[in-house]
Amino acid sequence: MANSEDNRPFKEKYRIYIYPVVLAWIVTMLVRPVISDGNAMLPGIQDGQVIIVAKHTYTTVRGTPEFQQVVAFREDFLEEGEKGENTIRRVIGLPGDKIEIKDGKVFRNDEVLEEDYIIGDTEGDVGPMFIGEDEVFVLGDNREESVDSRDSRVGPLKMEMIRGSCAITVWPINQIGRIK
Fold it and tell me: What domains, with CATH codes, occur in the chain?
């Protein structure tokens, strides 16, 4: 009877198992799937969509998110409402910016923002306020449904609360695409 002992080196013998585990570990260090909850980011992000978030650590030293970038927070920034409702918003104000909302218009550094991605009216007057060195001012795209930095209970948010930038939608399949 033939000897069936496998004499191949360990790496060669088990690479079919090692490579997928290492790849999965690397991927989870760089990205994270998040399920959108609520209507605050309509029309761009629908309730229940699965979004891939590219993990970033934003600080005054490591850099800030980009203006008008959609970001996901580590946890709800407001305890009220359903869990997960207050985790994805668009960055409107960066450190040092002057933000003002009046007459339904958003002003950043005294210039009116052109916001073709929103629905609803931007209600409430805010500011003028200056965004702190380690803060961002965020708004939802569905202005009438969103709880965001306009609310006195929220205000500008610390950059350390941001998990990362929302990169692409992966579910449902017919809505796969880059987040704008």
Answer: 33-178 (2.10.109.10)
